[in-house]
Write a structure and sequence with these properties.
The chain has 474 residues and is α+β, with helices and mostly antiparallel strands. The protein is 43% helix and 20% strand.
Length: 474
C-alpha cells in the first residue's frame, strides 16, 4: 500500500547519456606522423584513382548499368563475384591478424571515420585555434569573430564532404563526365542523391558525431575483445611505474616524495579523441591511435624520465615484467602464425586465379518457350541462347561447338565477334535425327557447349565449356 510520501517520488531516467564536445589537444610525435602519413596515402588513393586513365577509359570504374567493372587491365562481370568474396575474406583475415597482434590498428590509423575526423579537426584548429580557444569560444557568447570562424570552418567541412561524395559517385559514373554534368547543372537524380547523401554522412560523422560513432555505432568496438588475448600488443599505462601519481617539480626527489613517474598532468586525457583516461586500463572506447603515447613520451622527456610510461605492451609483459625479447617471442604465437598462413594462402590463390583467368565468360540459357520440337528434315531440335562476355579490351572472335550427344549438330551461328568488353547473346539450336531420338528414352540428356577464343595473342585457343541438357519429349 502506497503512502502519501510515495506520491511524486518517481524519478526520470534518461536513456541517453549527454556528453560534452571533445576538443582533443594537438600533439606531435612518432605515432602522429604515421597516422598523418596514412591519412595522405588513403586519401591520395581514394581521390586520385578515379582520375587515372587506362587506355581510353577510366582506370577504375564500376559501370552498374552495363554490369561491367574495370580495374586497370581487368574487366569483370557479375559472374566474377567470387573475386569480391575473396577480397572480403582477405580483409577479414587481415583484420583478425592485425587485431591479434596489435589491437585496433585499423581504427587508429586507416578507418575512414578516423581519417576524416583528423582532416576535419585540422580545419577546426585552423579556423578556431587550439583546444583551449575552442573550449572558451564554445562556452562564451556569440560574437562576429566567432560567427566568421564557425562559418569558415563549416564551409571547409562542406566542401570536403561534397568532394568526397562526388568522388564516390565518380567510381560508378565516369568522373570527367560527372564533373561536366555538375558544371552544366545536368546531374541525374541518382547521382545528385548519392553525392549529397554521402557528403552529408561524411559531414555529420566527421564533423559532429566523431567519437560517438566509435563508441556506439561501430560494432568492432564490441567484439574486439574476442580477438584480444594477454599476448596482444595494446596501449597500456604502466601503473607499477607510474603510481602513486602526483605533480612535482622537474628537480624534485621522486623517491623522497614517494611518487611514481606519472605527474598527473592529464595530457593523455586531453589528447584522446574519445576522451578516455588510459590510466584506468583497457577500455572498449580506445581506438588505438597512440596519441597518449606521444604526449606522455614528450612529458617524460621534459621531466628527464625514461620513456614508455604509456606504451604498446602486452598484458603478460606488463604484469610479469618481461623485456622486449620475451614479449615479441609471445606475440608471434600459433594464433598469429595460423592467421598469417591462411592469409598468405588466400592471397596466393587469388593471384593464381586472376593470372589463369579465362578472358571471356559464357552463360547458357534454354528457350523455355519450346523445350523440344520437330523441324524440317525430321529432326528433333532444342533451342538455346548463349551469352558470351568479352573480358578483354580487344575485339574477339569465338567459335561455338556442341558435344556430348551422339548425332548432335549445331544449327545457326557457329562463331561470334564481340567488341572490347562487349557482351552479346547468340541464339543457337541443337538438332539430332528423329530416328536417334525415337530410340532414346524420354528425359533430359547432358550436352556441352564449347566456346573457343580464336585470335588474341597469348590467349588464342582458350576455351570455356558450359553444360546444359537436351530434352527428348515423350
Amino acid at each position: 500500500m502506497s503512502t502519501q510520501a510515495d506520491v511524486g517520488s518517481d524519478e526520470m531516467v534518461s536513456l541517453y547519456k549527454a556528453s560534452k564536445t571533445i576538443h582533443a589537444r594537438a600533439v606531435s610525435g612518432w605515432f602522429v606522423k604515421w597516422r598523418w602519413a596514412l591519412v595522405f596515402l588513403t586519401q591520395l588513393v581514394y581521390y586520385g584513382l578515379p582520375w587515372l586513365t587506362w587506355g581510353d577509359r577510366q582506370a577504375v570504374l564500376f559501370e552498374l548499368a552495363s554490369r561491367r567493372f574495370y580495374i586497370f587491365g581487368l574487366v569483370l562481370y557479375p559472374q566474377d563475384f567470387i573475386y569480391l568474396t575473396a577480397l572480403l575474406i582477405i580483409s577479414a583475415y587481415a583484420l583478425f591478424l592485425f587485431t591479434a597482434v596489435a589491437g585496433r590498428l585499423w581504427c587508429g590509423y586507416a578507418c575512414p571515420q578516423t581519417v576524416y575526423t583528423e582532416i576535419f579537426v585540422w580545419f577546426e584548429r585552423l579556423f578556431e585555434g587550439n583546444h583551449q580557444k575552442r573550449i572558451k569560444a564554445d562556452e562564451g557568447p556569440w560574437t562576429l569573430d566567432k560567427l566568421v570562424r564557425k562559418l569558415g570552418k563549416h564551409a571547409a567541412w562542406g566542401a570536403i564532404a561534397l568532394w568526397t561524395g562526388f568522388t564516390l559517385v565518380g567510381y560508378f559514373t565516369p568522373i570527367r563526365t560527372l564533373g561536366s554534368s555538375v558544371l552544366n547543372l545536368g546531374l541525374g537524380p541518382w547521382e545528385t542523391f548519392w553525392i549529397l547523401f554521402y557528403g552529408f554522412a561524411t559531414y555529420g560523422n566527421a564533423g559532429f558525431l566523431r567519437e560517438q560513432v566509435c563508441k556506439y555505432m561501430c560494432p568492432y568496438a564490441r567484439f574486439q575483445s574476442a580477438m584480444f588475448d594477454k599476448d596482444t600488443l595494446i596501449i597500456s599505462y604502466d601503473s607499477a611505474r607510474g603510481e602513486p601519481r602526483g605533480s612535482r617539480g622537474k628537480k624534485a626527489d621522486v623517491a623522497a616524495l614517494g611518487l611514481g613517474s606519472c605527474i598527473d598532468c592529464n595530457l593523455c586525457v586531453q589528447v584522446c579523441p574519445t576522451g578516455i583516461d588510459i590510466r584506468k586500463g583497457l577500455q572498449y572506447e580506445c581506438i588505438g591511435c597512440a596519441a597518449c603515447i606521444d604526449v606522455c613520451n614528450g612529458v617524460m622527456d621534459k621531466m628527464g624520465y625514461e620513456r614508455g610510461l604509456v606504451r604498446y605492451v602486452t598484458q603478460n609483459a606488463l604484469t610479469q615484467g618481461w623485456g622486449a625479447q620475451q614479449m615479441w617471442a609471445r606475440v608471434l604465437r600459433p594464433r598469429v602464425l595460423v592467421y598469417s598462413a591462411i592469409l598468405v594462402l588466400i592471397v596466393l590463390a587469388l593471384g593464381v586465379s586472376l593470372a589463369n583467368r579465362t578472358p571471356f565468360r559464357v552463360d547458357v540459357v534454354r528457350d523455355r518457350g519450346a523445350l523440344a520440337r520437330i523441324v524440317d528434315g525430321g529432326k528433333l531440335e532444342n533451342v538455346y541462347r548463349l551469352q558470351v562476355m568479352n573480358a578483354t579490351e580487344q575485339t574477339q572472335r569465338y567459335q561455338i561447338r556442341v558435344s556430348g550427344l551422339q548425332g548432335a549438330s549445331l544449327v545457326g551461328r557457329h562463331d561470334v565477334e564481340l567488341a572490347p568488353a562487349e557482351a552479346g547473346w547468340v541464339p543457337v539450336a541443337v538438332q539430332i535425327p528423329y530416328e536417334t531420338a525415337a530410340a532414346m528414352k524420354p528425359g533430359a540428356y547432358p550436352i556441352e557447349f564449347e566456346i573457343t577464343l580464336q585470335q588474341t595473342p597469348g590467349h588464342a585457343g582458350a576455351a570455356v565449356a558450359e553444360h546444359s541438357t537436351f530434352v527428348v519429349p515423350r
